[in-house]
Amino acid sequence: MKVLRATKATQGQRKSDYFFCREGELVYLALACDSDTHPDGGCGCLRGFGGMETHKACTTAVVVEWPGDIHTYWLEVMKSMIHSKWVKTKGRDKTDPVDAAELVWYHVREVQAVADDLEPGTVVERRGRRAFDVQPRAREVGILTPAQVKRVGRR
Question: Is the pTM for the entire model greater than 0.85?
Fold first, then answer.
């Protein structure tokens, strides 16, 4: 299965690049806040990949072959979401289990939409709701919308 890992490769091609992850950690397309309306403005959510271990972000990721299957990857994303408090397992604000599962599947499918058609070693950057191959920068990679995720379903 192809997934994304944080990489410093191509960092600095844009003035707005940043790298706060650990090199090589698994990443997904970070959740974007409501205040960030342009990829190069605001807090940087619309250009970030979220680190699944450090819970920090970066603007470049590399496509890699991952030895696990989609279900193992789903578990890694779920663990990250719980640890970073995007999914709450206790208390009054406990996340509905179905909502939590759908959120995780959404992130898994987003990574698949970016990585599946690219060769391992391809470096991508995020620009809003899209990801781009930065080698060359012109190739656009589609990102799934929530409606598309529901149509794709679970494997």
Answer: no
